[in-house]
Amino acid sequence: MASTRDVLDLLDELAMLTTLKEQSPQSFKVRAYENAKQAIQGDGRDVTQLSATELTKIKGIGKSTAGKIREFMEHGEVEKLEQLRAEFPPSVVELSRIPGVGPKTLALMRSELDIQDLDGLKAALDAKKLRELKGLGAKAEEKIGTAIERLGLSGKDRRRSIGDAMPLAERLVAELLSHEIVSDALYCGSLRRMSETIGDVDITVASTDGPGVMAIVRDQSAVHEVILSGDTKTSFLTRDGMQVDVRVVSAEQFGAATLYFTGSKAHNIAMRQRALDRGLLLNEYGLLRKPEDDTEGDTEIVASETEEAIYEALDMAYVPPVMRENTGEVQASIDDSLPDLVQVAHIRGDLHYHTDRSGDGRSTVEDMIAEAAGRGYEYLAITDHGEDLAINGSTAEEMLEHREHISEAAKAHPDMTVLWGCELNIGAAGSLDYEDEFRARFDYTVASVHSHYDQSVRDQTARLIAAISDPTVNSIGHLTGRYIGRRPGIEIDVDVVLEALFQFDKALEVNGALQRLDAASDVVRKAVDRGVKLVINTDSHHVSELGRIEYGVKTAQRGWAPRELVVNTWPKKKFLDWIGHPVD
Which CATH class is domain 4-84? Predict the structure, then answer.
């Protein structure tokens, strides 16, 4: 049965495909779908239970969109969406995500050069045909080719971004867990390790009714084509070609199976060797001991129900899934020297937080503050965009009015310190919003790159250092500005930037938005080694996005980040002392 989440996904797809059809993200129809999505998120009710009339009573949902929602609920599909899918198949949608290939360029490529997929685009690039299209030229052609290389689309091993895979996996796991015949379920593989890109989605289920679970899987709305299906495994493709493998094991084998299917391959090999050194065997069924005389007697199961029990039986500390890459964690586990990793429960505040004061924010100051207070946060920095982002930013006068608004709204939550902050835009040469004196009035600032992605490594590094050295900056947000799988980030000398962060005592953000996860985990690990302070934020623009903190924490853990280096795990007084703010 469809859920509100399915309806939101429907509106997302309609907006995306209509953007390609209308050749503009600002068309009336696109904005109608986006407004409807925001309205549903803000309403909070299960929209699948509402009639068309009830839907239109929600501000932001028009009659046409309400009709499509009801059509989806009653028939499982929407005729208009099916027409758009036929006109813009997944291979074409994939092209639209490449930087430089906007809706109008895509339409030209299809009509003039018959480019319908990535292979066709690569062939046209090799033949230098794109430069012949109206409005492109050699430079634009070169940029598209560079983007394909930097996004990792040039090889045969095609991978998907975590931002596409994680929501799908979470929904499938939640659906499986809602059935009585399922005692446990986990997504595994590189997704569980928080890899930025994944090959396919692996889900392991504990149940005594394999055929029943397989029937549930085949009935999911995400299923476009079933590749194979038996009593204990089903593999299917989603509409955009992502493969999902669902396996069923017994509850007694669940720990061994999730350990095995989480990987990585190198970690698993090291674990199997550890078992062999103790005269044991480790596989997806358990940690096993054969009879000493090597007869055909029963094999003893030493541990299998939980991953923790297997590590313990091998005299190892438990290794969190995100660390299982064989980059030192196995020996650290043996030596009991794994770091005291930051946990979600340690987070005391969010320090990159937008409201509808930002042009791309969708929830009010009051709602965003209340949501943070509901999570038990001790402090919060509202960091709406500065004036240099013309579409989304605010003038100095508007920011002063915003400060008063924040101060008034914060009175409803006296136990939480609410800071008046700003997300400053780092210009091409490192300039920042507003005059120095005005910037100094903010309680807290995060400075981020939002443009000029094509500069040299030297220039990008210099612009970051200029921002880091500015005394009004507290932290650097989403370090490279990347969107995983869709836009490469800026290229910088990481070591030089980390040294500047350390010397000027500024924090490096780990942004929990799935499309960003920036700074990346490998950069986080370098930062940890250098002793650079970190801050884990959600970059929320809506009350529904505060859950991103989990992804930020896991990315930090993947980079071996200890709790003490993360400034927003600190008690309020220690944190406020660090930013030079008077304690309440």
Answer: mainly alpha
Confidence band, pLDDT 50/70/90 cuts, at residue 551: very high
At the topology level, CATH places domain 256-335 in: Beta Polymerase; domain 3 (3.30.210)
Q: Is the dihedral of CA 317, 321, 324, 329 positive or negative?
A: negative
In whole angstroms, give the CA distance from residue 21 to residue 582.
54
pLDDT at 290: 80
pLDDT, tens digit (0-9, with 9 covering 90-100), for 192-206: 999 999 999 999 999
> Angle between the 118-126 and 138-150 helix axes, to the nearest 10 degrees?
130
Which CATH topology does 344-579 take? TIM Barrel (3.20.20)
Q: How many angstroms separate the CA atoms of 194 and 265, rounded?
A: 15
**Residues 6+ positions from 493 with CB-CB distance below 8 Å:** 457, 458, 461
Q: Which residue carries 């490594």 as its tokens? A: 457
Superfamily classification of domain 160-249:
Beta Polymerase, domain 2 (3.30.460.10)
- pLDDT score for 296: 63
> Measured between alpha carbons, how far is 485 from 294 in angstroms, rounded to an integer?
51
What is the spatial distance between Cα 529 and Cα 566, in angstroms, rounded to a whole number? 13
Cβ-contact 446, 408 below 8 angstroms: no
Is the pLDDT at 295 greater than 60, yes or no? Answer: no
